[in-house]
């Protein structure tokens, strides 16, 4: 049994401003990896550049990170960072920007390597120092070593094989306050999925379950906002972000399970947002679990049964997916013995089709 999470996590109001020296200590020129607009709108980019200016650190902004970033985007960011002379990386945004920043930190440290390095199991590459500033409440990427990237050559999403934990994560719920409601709902469902899939997992331990249980309790307290019955205030925003971080800590120990594997086909082929895609399979995944695990998850999240949980997710994070695409997702998963092996119960064709058959569609 082991618990490994080497990231220094700072949770407090205005933590980027208060801990600017911690960021500046990582290097002399930062490549800031972020999305197109959100970090400008929520103030996170301004906070980061302010503290870099205050501490005399140069920076270059790469703001072309798309949702579900591609290998091609990583290489473009790498080339820009090398040209500008950056010696550390800062990821600002949701899971896409943070995952991209991890991959970029590897490729910049290994400038002579091709993109295949990210998927070379025989290599043990170093990476540049890395800071993470999360601005959504879903992936928990600020405390995981995982970077999920889009592989257009394989027509799917695939994790980089090398684990890269940020050196420091600066977490402030204020950056969620300007996010679109649907984005928060989708990312919150992703966070819940991490907690469920780490709890019901062959690698689950008392340590990983400690994180999942703490996160599910916080997530439960935010349900009124997610249903539209309460506004998003700073306390709720901080609870959602903290729950997401707990989820990240949990999957950093166990990895994800069947719903995530199924979701990648829906996202790549159907354009369905990741949180909504992975949430669609949660009720079926829990329904087939051991009774003790099922009841504990339902109790912690405040649902009477898996049907109620499934309807809640479908209401706040809807999907519209064809039977053909669900079948394609099932067939891909059944050809992935590594992912099937992390499920703690027998995941045969009947079980997988039971999970995909329980998806609630909005259309």
TrEMBL record:
SUPFAM superfamilies: Dehydroquinate synthase-like (SSF56796). The keyword Ribonucleoprotein does not apply. Signal peptide: none annotated. It holds the Pfam family ADH_Fe_C. Keywords: Oxidoreductase. GO terms for molecular function: alcohol dehydrogenase (NAD+) activity; metal ion binding. CDD domains: PPD-like (cd08181). PANTHER family: ALCOHOL DEHYDROGENASE, DEHYDROGENASE, PUTATIVE-RELATED. This is Alcohol dehydrogenase. It comes from Ruminococcus flavefaciens.
């Amino acid at each position: 049994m082991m618990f490994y999470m080497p990231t220094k996590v700072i949770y407090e109001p205005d933590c980027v401003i208060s801990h600017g020296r911690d960021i500046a200590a990582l290097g002399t020129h930062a490549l800031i990896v972020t999305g197109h607009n959100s970090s400008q709108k929520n103030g996170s980019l301004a906070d980061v550049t302010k503290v870099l200016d205050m501490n005399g650190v140069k920076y270059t902004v790469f703001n072309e990170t798309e949702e579900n970033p591609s290998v091609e985007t990583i290489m473009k960011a790498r080339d820009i960072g090398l040209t500008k002379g950056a010696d550390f990386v800062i990821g600002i945004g949701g899971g896409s920007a943070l995952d991209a920043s991890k991959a970029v930190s590897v490729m910049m440290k290994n400038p002579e390597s091709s993109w295949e390095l990210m998927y070379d199991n025989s290599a043990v590459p170093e990476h540049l120092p890395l800071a993470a500033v999360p601005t959504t409440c879903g992936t928990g990427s600020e405390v995981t070593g995982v970077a999920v990237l889009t592989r257009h050559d394989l027509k799917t999403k695939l994790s980089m094989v090398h684990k890269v934990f940020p050196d420091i994560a600066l977490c402030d719920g204020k950056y969620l306050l300007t996010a679109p409601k649907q984005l928060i709902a989708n990312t919150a469902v992703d966070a819940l999925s991490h907690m469920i899939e780490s709890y019901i997992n062959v690698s689950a331990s008392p340590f990983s379950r400690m994180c999942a249980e703490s996160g599910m309790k916080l997530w439960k307290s935010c349900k009124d906002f997610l249903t539209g019955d309460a506004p998003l205030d700073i306390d709720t925003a901080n609870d959602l972000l903290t729950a997401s971080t707990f989820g990240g800590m949990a999957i950093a120990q166990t990895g994800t399970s069947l719903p995530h594997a199924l979701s990648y086909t829906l996202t790549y082929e159907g354009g369905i947002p990741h949180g909504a895609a992975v949430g669609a399979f949660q009720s079926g995944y829990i329904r087939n679990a051991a009774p003790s695990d099922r009841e504990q998850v339902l109790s912690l999240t405040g649902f009477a049964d898996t049907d109620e949980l499934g309807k809640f997710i479908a209401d706040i994070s809807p999907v519209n997916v064809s039977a053909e695409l669900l079948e394609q997702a099932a067939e891909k998963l059944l050809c992935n013995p590594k992912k099937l092996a992390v499920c703690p119960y027998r995941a045969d064709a009947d079980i997988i089709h039971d999970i995909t058959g329980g998806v609630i569609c909005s259309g």
